[in-house]
Specification:
Blueprint (H helix, E strand, L loop, with lengths): L6 H6 L11 E3 L13 H12 L4 E4 L1 H7 L8 E4 L3 H7 L3 E4 L5 E6 L2 E7 L13 E4 L5 E5 L4 H7 L7 E3 L6 E3 L3 H7 L1 E2 L5 H7 L2 H13 L2 E2 L1 H4 L2 H4 L8 H12 L4 H10 L3 H4 L1 H4 L9 H18 L6 H24 L3 H17 L6 H16 L7 H6 L4 H15 L2 H14 L2 H20 L1
């Protein structure tokens, strides 16, 4: 299944006696990780920490990606140095986080994140080692430090419990991650119910990795997700916004969406949308979500820019229309006024769960309002709409709506496509012809 998994994965698993030890150690000639594939800044941090007498390892997802033949997005380091000791070692270091105290070492745009080995909560004391849980079991603070062995079992997935040493170039696997990576299995370390309660975002990470790496979720890891999905309500809305972008704008958005729905997580993130889903999955809304996510995946795969404002504008278009129509019936307002109220209501409800920044909601509002304006093309209106900064995004949404709804929208989208790509003289003629046509219709 995983043709990119290095040959050493298959080679190592016949060494049965090593399975009884605390970890499997893979020497340099038995793995495919090379220093030339590692960030120079990460290497600088590793070398300096080692020189100061600390243990320091490249750790986690970057190792996983290197084993799979992929280019890591970033490089993280684990060490027995405390955050304060790391800060003393590097001038370009700042400490971040209260819940998880981390050291960020700045190299221009690149940030090397350094975490101190996490320990067992029984190790906490009143001064430096502090842990705190909520009543639901969520970790509110986790600054208990320990050994590399304790750190390994505190990590989330077996495929992320790898440690690479720059001293002797060996790779350590503490939790059977190599075997799971070879078999395409995503497995949580420890009791999944406890681990999900510690940090409910782990449910989203499970889904994201399954879609991103095309791997299967191990049954014990998958089983509690549907039941524990409501725990996401305890996560700060700003954090869920960041997680939603990782889920939907990483090039595997559509497959991620299908898994989110399968495990009842999508409704926790987007209840405004989920209420309009149908049993046969073929409503305008569901077709829109499928199309915008597939288009987003295509653009990311082809290294084209994507804007979350457009993605969310497509997501919430039909909920806003339904809310506006309902307001018209209940209050007797004109549709234009009801439409503005619906935008505010839908965004207000959604942003309580996922804190979409104002810089994005402003763009979304422009895209939505242009959908109404683009119907009215007489006189100078068409020219003013064409000059609007968000015209292109609004047109793209109109085109998607037309492909879904058909009918008059197809003709409207075709008109705007021709209007934006023709000469000024032809645009003037198109608007005049439109006025004549409307006058004839009015007479009849």
């Amino acid at each position: 299944m995983f043709k990119h998994v290095s040959r050493f994965c298959r080679k190592m698993f016949h060494i049965e006696e090593q399975k009884k030890s605390r970890y499997i150690s893979i020497s340099r000639n038995e793995h495919n990780i090379s220093r030339k594939d590692i960030s120079e800044n990460a290497l600088k941090v590793l070398y300096r920490l080692n020189k100061q007498g600390y243990e320091a390892y490249l750790v986690g997802g970057c190792i996983r990606d290197l084993l799979l033949g992929k280019t890591p997005k970033d490089f993280d380091i684990a060490t027995n140095a405390t955050p304060e000791q790391v800060q003393k070692t590097f001038r370009n270091c700042r400490l971040v986080g209260k819940r998880f105290r981390l050291a960020h070492i700045m190299f221009g745009k690149e940030i090397i994140e350094v975490a101190t080995f996490r320990g067992e909560h029984s190790n906490q004391d009143e001064q430096n080692n502090i842990a705190k849980r909520s009543q639901s079991g969520m970790l509110l603070r986790d600054n208990v430090y320990g050994t590399i062995e304790q750190d390994a079992v505190r990590r989330d997935f077996t495929m992320n419990a790898f440690y690479y040493s720059i001293k002797d170039f060996t790779l350590r696997d503490y939790c059977g991650g190599l075997k799971d990576l070879q078999n395409g299995i995503i497995r949580l370390i420890g009791d999944p119910k406890v681990r999900y309660r510690e940090d409910p975002v782990r449910m989203l990470r499970t889904i994201r990795f399954a879609a991103k790496l095309d791997m299967q979720i191990e049954p014990t890891t998958a089983e509690p997700i549907k039941h524990l999905a409501p725990l996401l309500k305890n996560i700060p809305s700003a954090r869920l916004f960041d997680e939603s972008l990782k889920l939907l704008q990483s090039g595997n958005g559509y497959n991620t969406y299908l898994l989110l729905r399968k495990y009842h997580l999508f409704e926790q993130l987007f209840p405004v949308i989920e209420r309009l889903f149908t049993q046969n999955n073929n409503s305008y809304l569901e077709k829109m979500i499928e199309q915008v996510l597939k288009n987003t995946d295509y653009r990311i795969t082809n290294k084209q820019r994507v804007n979350p404002a457009f993605l969310f504008a497509a997501f919430f278009w039909y909920p806003i229309i339904e809310q506006a129509q309902l307001t018209c019936v209940e209050s007797g307002l004109l549709f234009h006024d009801a439409f503005s109220m619906a935008i505010n209501d839908v965004l207000s409800e959604q942003c309580r769960i996922i804190a979409i920044p104002k810089r994005l909601t402003t763009i979304m509002g422009d895209i939505w309002r242009l959908q109404l304006r683009m119907k009215k093309r007489e006189g100078k209106r068409a020219f003013a709409i064409l000059e609007h900064p968000k015209f292109r995004a609004a047109y793209d949404l109109l085109e998607m709506r037309a492909s879904i709804e058909k009918g008059e929208l197809l003709a409207l989208a075709k008109w705007w496509d021709e209007f934006q790509h023709t000469s000024v003289e032809k645009r003037i003629a198109m608007v005049k012809q439109l006025s004549k046509t409307n006058k004839r219709r009015a007479k009849h």
